[in-house]
Amino acid sequence: xxxxxxxxxxIGAFHATTLAALDGVDxxxxxxxxxxxxATVAASAPRARTSAVDSLLTSGIDALVVATSTPGHxxxxxxxxxxxxxxxxxxxxxxxLEETIDVVRVVESSGVPVHVGFQRRFDTGYRRxxxxxxxxxxxxxxxxxxxxxxxxxxxxxxxxxxxGIFLDCSVHDCDVVRFLTGREVVTVYATGGxxxxxxxxxxxxxxxxxxxxxxxxxxxxxLSTTRYHAQGHDVRLEVLGSQGSVSVGLDESLALRSVExxxxxxxxxxxxxxxxxxxxxxxxxxxxxxxxxxxEAPSPCTVRDALEAFRVAQACTLSLHxxxxxxxxxxxxT
Length: 334
Description:
- Residues 1-118 form the Gfo/Idh/MocA-like oxidoreductase N-terminal domain.
- Helix content is 35%, strand content 22%.
- The chain is α/β, with parallel strands linked by helices.
- Helix 3 packs parallel to helix 4 (97-110) and helix 6 crosses helix 10.
C-alpha cells in the first residue's frame, strides 16, 4: 500500500518511522507545509518520498494518515474522505466542538472508514483491563482512577492552541473510561490550578487538574493530570470492583518512589514521554489501520467515539471555569 502522511512534526516523524517498518507499506508519501521538514522525515524512512500538501491526495496514495497540528485535522480529514481515502487522524479530529460535529456528519455520510488515534485502546494493559471489566471477573465496578502526568510542560506557544489541559491530555482518559466500561458519562465536576510557569494562566489554562466523572450506571471515574511530573511520564489506571481490582501502568517504569520500609520497587527506567510509553501501542494501532484501509476490519475508534470523548473533556473544561458540575446534556451532540 502507498500511505500518505500529512504532517512532519514530532508525532508525524514518529508515525513515519512506525509506518515505514510495517509489513504492507510499500511507499510512504510525506507532506508538510514546511517542505524541508517533509524532506527530513522522508530521508530518514525507507521507501519514502515527499509531496506538496496540495497534491498529496492525488499522488497515488491508497490511504491517508493525518498527523499535522490540530488546526489542520478537520480540513484534511474532510478532504481525505471526499477523495474516498481511508483515513487515520490523530486526536482531536477538530479544534472545536462545533467543527467536530460537522466532521462527524461529513464522515458518516461518506461511508469512508476513518480511524481516530486514541492509542491507549491498543495498549496491552488497557485491553486486559477492559477484558477484566467486560468479563465480570471484577464483579461490579464502582471506581476508576485515571492519571496522565507529563514529565515536563510543553512550549509556551503550544498552550493557547491546545484546547486546554482536559482536551489535550485528559481526553485520552475520557476515551478510555468509555472504552473499558462500555458506559457513557452523565455528569462531570472539575477543578484545577497553576503553580508553575505563568504562560498557562495567561492562556486561560491550568497546569494541573482533576475531575470526577459519574457514569450512567453510577460508576465513578476520577481523573487527574498535570504538566509537571519531573520524575517521569506517568500514565496509569486503576479499576476497582466488588470482586477484584486491576491496575494499568504499575510496573518497573512507575515514576513514583516509595517511602515505606524495605520497599525498593520500582527499579526503572521511567518513561520520558508518551511516545516511548506507548510505542508498542502505536505500532499495533497503525497495523490495525492498514487492515481498516484494506477493508479487512472496521474502525476501532470512530469519529463518533472521538466526538463523545471531546464532549466529556469539553464538559470538564466548562466545569473548571464555571466552578459547577456540568451535565453532559448541556454539551451539544448535533
